[in-house]
UniProtKB/TrEMBL annotation:
InterPro entries for this protein: ACOX_C_alpha1 (IPR055060), Acyl-CoA_ox_N (IPR029320), Acyl-CoA_Oxase/DH_mid-dom_sf (IPR046373), Acyl-CoA_oxidase (IPR012258), Acyl-CoA_oxidase_C (IPR002655), AcylCo_DH-like_C (IPR036250), AcylCoA_DH/ox_N_sf (IPR037069), AcylCoA_DH/oxidase_NM_dom_sf (IPR009100)
Protein's name according to its UniProt entry: Acyl-coenzyme A oxidase
Organism from which the protein derives: Mikania micrantha (bitter vine)
Family: Belongs to the acyl-CoA oxidase family.
GO biological process: fatty acid beta-oxidation using acyl-CoA oxidase; lipid homeostasis; long-chain fatty acid metabolic process
Active site location: E424 (proton acceptor)
Residue ranges of domain Acyl-CoA oxidase C-alpha1 in the record: 278-439
GO molecular function: acyl-CoA oxidase activity; FAD binding; fatty acid binding
Chain ranges of the Acyl-CoA oxidase C-terminal domain: 478-655
């Protein structure tokens, strides 16, 4: 039997309706149809071929990406694609480039932070790509600490302009995507200075390049920051360095929704919180959670298909060897990742609806849910990206030696994905923001009832004193037992930190001293959100034979895997006995055997095309070995029998040996 037959047999074992699961994964039939249509459009168009990328040099790779982006823009216009379709099209092209910054950051920054007048002027230009923008916040010396940025924007009364300047080397903008070679404009974050007074960091629209010939404008020095991790991966993006030498812009190019500077040089703070200036980061963090489920599902799809094809050991009487997916150790590493991909998918849908709600409230000047939205996006961004980056690497290991080949698709995916742990808020820094929110919520509880994702803190008294009543492994198959365990663990960790901080005379000092424990408590809170959201999702109608049942199994796998992994927390907070923890682990192993027959069908439900996976190991048809052989033959080193350099550097050594042998 060949890999093709193995996967065919595996698909027959499925206990649920795969087409219905595809819809459940996508969120709705309409969402499925849009993403499916765009995936096929990209996969079937030779312009979007990406298998040659790893063999290209940087300049060629960059040019190739520009070509694809231009062609995609043409398709978007010629086919009159909707905004949603265009988003999926860009996603499936699967190469970071300047348009990510244009659509994910530049346009949202104008929308969220521009005044009505500014939006009327700049948005049509950006939306039709008459200008191309980037988001220039991070500097050589400051990324996480936004208030520490050094670039200055000094108001000049006489000319009614701001003077944008890089006073030090460390104030050089460093990292913004698309900035080195493509962007004509940037939203530049700089310290506002009026008459020698500092008014905090604000965004300014600054033109970098001529719209006539694309040359850099006077006073601007811009370039690329150099190659990044991996060969292909993020190197299609021109992340840039930018310096300003007293560049002048009109006053009305400061983004003026949150605060304004008048012609007289008066600083006016609107009736909206200053944190709205951070709004672009919040909206991108939500997108990053959604991207985590996509990246993880991709790695899991490759590792699961290959694990069903790969056989090692266990052959008796000349019969077939064991499929590696049947090893319990393989299942215990792979299936939690499969469950996590679904968990992240559902929590990202929930987060999107939370964001929509916050946006509507902001329009009505209701800012009450802003702190919670910030904590959720920051925390979930951190949790999902960390788990996804680790998960991709685990999938590489699950594929043994072949996982290390570029043709497996996994090294490229990892190198491309891993900066998500750093950009848009370094993960630990983000968890500390969650901690601030939680500690503040606890400190305000005497006069303010916690709501939303923190509402369980309001049930502190029972949660602090109850004990788990699980007696058998079956008792763990109960959503309320699971939620109670996660709530209790989180509440006890948060309260413990809060009480210890309260003992410090200086609360900030206490917070810093306990920051390691606070990060762990924040993670416990975020895991509770993911687990609860998964459970809530299962309370909704999910059509299709066996679909809901399969998702229930995955939900328990996700929750009990976390419980097992973090059993130290659950035991230390005194809610579980070691016997109950071990019953959870017994149940987890039983659940793995329920996932096993459905594993291939579950990864088929992601509906990933072979183009998107770009993996010989993860091919839908399972024809792995012949295609691996074919891919190897195509390596440029195999173009000739005698490679360049052999005659020059190897032959002389061989000949010298001959000479010595004669002696
Ligand atoms: C996709 C690839 C492209 C990548 C692009 C990039 O990477 S672009 C670059 C991406 N770069 C990054 O992601 C940089 C990451 N760094 C940051 O976002 C900020 O520097 C910070 C949040 C760490 C600290 O900020 P700070 O020193 O100004 O603040 P503080 O800690 O003193 O807190 C003050 C209060 O503000 C609150 N609050 C804070 N943020 C928000 C918010 N978004 N919303 C609402 N509220 C928020 C906070 O909770 C606190 O509330 P409290 O307690 O007073 O009620
Ligand atoms: C691929 C990529 C693309 C990017 N694109 C853009 C872009 O388009 N525009 C843009 O403006 N920026 C961009 N960035 C920059 C990115 O946003 C920053 O790198 C990120 O916010 C992290 O900041 P930092 O580099 O200053 O890390 P640092 O804050 O210097 O982190 C270093 C270490 O210090 C720790 N640390 C920092 N502060 C604290 C604290 N208070 N408590 C405890 N530990 C702390 C961190 O946990 C980390 O371990 C990009 C970065 C990458 C990698």
């Amino acid at each position: 039997m060949e890999g093709v037959d193995y996967l065919r047999d595996e698909r027959k074992k499925s206990e649920f309706d795969v087409e219905a699961m595809k819809v459940a994964w996508a969120g709705s039939r309409e969402a499925f149809q849009v993403s499916d249509r765009m995936a096929k459009l990209v996969a079937n168009d030779p312009v979007f071929e990406k298998f040659s990328k790893p063999t290209l040099g940087r300049k060629e790779m960059f040019k190739n990406t520009l070509r694809k982006a231009a062609y995609a823009w043409k398709l978007i216009n010629d086919l009159h694609l909707t905004e949603e379709e265009a988003k999926w099209l860009r996603h499936y092209i699967d190469e970071p480039n300047y348009t990510d910054l244009q659509w994910e950051m530049f346009v949202p920054a104008l929308e969220g932070q521009g005044s009505e007048e500014q939006k009327r002027k700049w948005l049509p230009l950006a939306q039709t790509m008459q200008i191309i923008g980037t988001y220039a916040q991070t500097e050589l010396a400051h990324g996480s600490n936004v208030q520490g940025l050094e670039t200055t924007a000094t108001f000049d009364h006489e000319t009614d302009q701001f003077v944008i300047h890089s006073p030090t080397l460390t104030s050089s903008k460093w990292w913004p995507g698309g900035m080195a070679k493509v962007a004509t404009h940037a939203i530049v974050y700089a310290r506002l200075i009026i008459d020698g007074h500092f008014y905090g960091v604000h965004g300014f629209i600054v033109q970098l390049r001529s719209l006539e010939d694309h040359s850099t404008l006077p006073g601007i020095t811009v370039g690329d920051i150099g190659m990044k991790f991996g060969h292909g991966a993020y190197n299609t993006m021109d992340n840039g360095v930018l310096r300003f030498d007293r560049v002048r812009i009109p006053r009305n190019q400061m983004l003026m929704r949150v605060s304004q500077v008048t012609k007289e040089g008066k600083y006016v703070q609107s009736d909206v919180p200053r944190q709205l200036a951070y709004g672009t980061m919040v909206s991108v963090r939500q997108t990053i959670v959604s991207d985590a489920s996509k990246a993880l599902s991709r790695a899991v799809c490759i590792a699961t298909r290959y694990s069903a094809i790969r056989r090692q050991f266990g052959s008796h009487d000349g019969g077939p060897e064991t499929q590696v997916i049947d090893y319990k150790t393989q299942q215990s590493r792979l299936f939690p990742l499969l469950a996590s991909a679904f968990a992240f998918r559902f929590v990202s849908e929930w987060l999107k609806s939370l964001q929509t709600d916050v946006k509507q409230r902001l329009e009505a000047k209701d800012f009450s849910t802003l702190p919670e939205a910030h904590a959720c996006t920051a925390g979930l961004k951190s949790l999902t990206t960390a788990a996804t980056a680790d998960g991709i690497e685990e999938c590489r290991k699950l594929c043994g030696g072949h996982g290390y080949l570029i043709s497996s698709g996994l090294p490229e995916l990892y190198a491309y994905y891993v900066p998500a742990c750093t950009y848009e808020g370094e993960n630990v820094v983000m968890m500390l923001q969650v901690a601030r929110f939680l500690v503040k919520t606890v400190s305000e509880m005497s006069y303010k009832q916690p709501v939303g994702t923190a509402d369980y803190l309001g049930r502190m008294a029972p949660l602090m004193h109850n004990n788990c009543d699980v007696q058998t492994a079956e008792d763990w198959l109960n959503p309320s037992a699971i939620v109670k365990a996660f709530e209790t663990r989180a509440v006890r960790m948060i309260v413990d930190c809060s009480q210890r901080i309260a003992k410090f005379e200086n609360q900030e000092e206490g917070f810093a001293e306990l920051s390691t424990d606070l990060v762990e408590a924040s993670l416990a809170h975020c895991q509770l959100i993911v687990v609860s959201t998964f459970i809530q999702r299962l309370k909704q109608e999910i059509p299709g034979k066996g679909v809901k049942q399969s998702l229930e199994v995955l939900c328990y796998v996700y929750a009990l895997y976390l419980l097992h992994k973090h059993q130290g927390d659950f035991l230390a907070t005194g809610y579980l006995t070691s016997k109950q923890a071990s019953l959870a682990n017994d149940q987890l192993k039983t659940l793995y055997s329920k996932v096993r027959p459905n594993a291939i069908a579950l990864v088929d439900s992601f509906n990933h095309t072979d183009h998107y996976l770009s993996s010989v190991l993860g091919r839908y048809d399972g024809n792995v070995y012949p295609k691996l052989y074919e891919a190897a033959r195509k390596d440029p080193l195999n173009d000739s029998d005698i490679a360049d350099g052999i005659n020059q550097y190897v032959q002389p050594i061989l000949k010298q040996k001959l000479h010595l042998a004669k002696l």
